Amino acid sequence: MTGPPLASPAFLATLAAIMPKPHLLLSATLLLVSAAFAALPKPDADNGGLILPIGFHALVVADHLKPLRNLAVADNGDLYIKTRQDGIYALRDADGDGRAEVVKEFGSGGGTGIALHNGWLYESTNDAVYRYKLTPGELVPTGEPERIVRDLPDEKQHNAKAFAFGADGQLYVEVGSPSNAFGGKRDRALGAKGEDPTEFLQTHGGYWRFDPDKPDQTQATGFHVSTGHRHSTSIALNPTNGRLFICIHGRDQLNTVAPQFYTALDNSQNPAEVMHLLRDGANFGWPYTYVDAQTKERKLNPEFGGDGKKVDDSGKFDAPLVVFPAHYSPMQLAFYTGTQFPEKFRGGAFLAFQGSWNRAPLPQAGYQVVYIPFDEKGMPKGSFETFADNFAGYTDLASPGDALHRPNGVAVGPDGSLYITDSSRGRVWRIIYTGEK
Amino acid sequence: MRSLACASAVLLLAACSKSEPPPVVAVAAAPTPPAKSGAAVAAAPGTERPAAPAAAPVQTPAPAPAPRLPEAAPAKTAASDAPKVDLAALLKQGEKIYADTCATCHMADGNGVPFMQPGIDKSAWISNPDPQYLLSLILRGAEVVGAAADAYDNKMAPQDALSDEQVAAVATYVRHRFAAEPIAKPVTPAEVAIARARPGLPK
After folding, report:
1. Which of A124, A180, A291, A310 could form a disulfide with A300 if both were Cys (CB 3.0 to 4.6 A apart)?
2. Number of helices and strands (H, E) in chain A?
3. Confidence of residue B2 (pLDDT cuts 50, 70, 90)
């Protein structure tokens, strides 16, 4: 199988018989292939349970798979999706109806990150990055994976390893902080006191750069790009300016740690989840500070002398480029590189929020995919808007376990469709645009 | 250390003997609840990774609920245990502490957060008639749970900033609300003091 049925060898042979001139054959083939992509599948009557902007529709590509993490879409539309705890799903829509008729699982070890790069499928477990050689047309790689980075810190909490390829072709891998605010043994508990994170941050809470073609690299041999973040599971290259952008999960439980300064309601609305530019030498301020979701100021964490008001004036930490609501949990980030969607979506990025657990007494929130507009220079405008909603199925959700779905992966297909994966009940959606351009 | 353990045991016996025989028997009859409860919490005994909590969200099947004494389960006002306990007031106090301190992670409904924090509804730790295991867990955090805690991303911190009275109230509340069968017998501050003095789980 090399593509849609219309491009099958038999059909091309027929065409060749009909059309004598090679250049005509070529243009006819291109026409047919683009026609095949242009023919969008029929959406589901209920849009797979999602609420979308006018003109957009959705269909369920696959359902009831294992809990899913990030995904990557190949040039022929094949989907590769990480499962949280097991292998990698390979999905193929063999007949163009938008549903995956072929669902294979290969590999093992769980994890989060996945990306296609120069004919390889890269994927991360919680302590390593591997790659598989892909053979054009073959859905499942046949060879053994090659380990590119090994022995990354894996201490359970915040151990997902997001990664992306920079404009320099290098591999950027995240290592999280197994911590809330480095509050020692009582981290997350009443009265937690911050400890000196200097040594800890040498190997945690940052991004590291590696050679994507060199096997068995370690954190020590990688280049330490950035420091001072708690956990980041969102990283993507903006093709407009060749810069990498990341999102960071803010801390939890301000009111649990310091009820004298924060009410439960304060905590439900703070701190912000944030987007930053990833640059060499950047420091994003954790564990000393957090970003206030209302005032956008960088404030001191209560573990490090904060009282809910004290603003950090050290000048050492980058300012966030986009400020999102508290506890939404930003997961995969994908720049929109297609042309299927209307003009306003070109050049911006989609971000999947997995949704909160730490917003009581307010309902849990953020089970949605948002659109983040970027300017012509490739920088975020600072705003965002809800794009796909109702994943949870309820608006008064008290507990994440009750959510029907939790968006995790988001990626753009070759025809400009947007694919979304579900970390709860294993659903995969494809979003298409059928309205006016 | 050893003398402390001995002292605790003596204290425990002393505390128990002040009331009536059943609790002593309960201690003897529940030799290794942590293992059982661990299995219940992890929901996948023998495997490193938990069964997908998404599909069956932490509904702790409690394969082997802690052994229960006939006397321990049904409502039994603890007149003999502590002088005049107002159970309703105690539960109310415990509910407030649960909401302020515990529900953040374990959720108001006790169902936890898939992959992140375990559900506690019908947990064997809570269902055990002997409160000492639950009290150790509250005061020491995830370290007393052992490897079973690895099924979840976040590790419970020791909640030892709470007073004996507060721990007793919240333990009473969760035993009343989340035990496989409600346990009405109040937990006393004296029992919390015993747990606090002991380094780990009861021997």
Report:
1. A310
2. 4, 26
3. very low
The pLDDT value recorded for residue B83 is 61
pLDDT at residue A384, rounded to an integer: 98
Provide ipTM, 2 decimals.
0.80
- CATH assignment of the domain containing A417: 2.120.10.30
Residues A11, A90 within the same domain: no
Residues A379 and A292 in one domain: yes
What mean pLDDT value characterizes chain A? 92
Same domain, A6 and A101: no
Round to whole Å and give the CA distance between A364 and A352: 16
- Contacts with A157 from chain B: Cβ below 8 Å: 153-155
CB contact under 8 A, A186 and B162: no
| Chain A: closest CA distance from residue B171 (Å) | 17
Which of B38, B40, B39, B15 is CA-nearest to residue B27?
B15
Q: What is the widest separation between alpha-carbon atoms in chain B?
A: 47
> Which residues lie below 8 Å from residue A34, measured CB to CB, with a gap of 6+?
none
DSSP alpha helix (H) spans, A213-294: 254-257, 264-268
Please count the residue pairs, one from chain A and one from chain B, whose beta carbons lie less than 8 angstroms apart. 86
Q: What's the predicted TM-score (pTM) here?
A: 0.82
b (16+ CB within 10 A) / e for A91-108? bbbeeeebbbeebebbbe
pLDDT reported for residue A393: 96
Range of the domain at A59: 44-433
Q: Which residues of B touch A259 (CB under 8 A)?
A: 100
Kindly state the average pLDDT of the residues A31-51: 77
Please compute the mean of the pLDDT values over residues B167-192 and round it to a whole number. Answer: 97
A144, A222: one domain = yes
Cβ within 8 Å of B, A 161-220: 185-192
Is residue A28 classed exposed, middle or buried when 0-12, 13-18 and 19+ CB atoms within 10 A define those classes?
A: middle
CATH architecture, range B2-45+58-197 = Orthogonal Bundle (1.10)
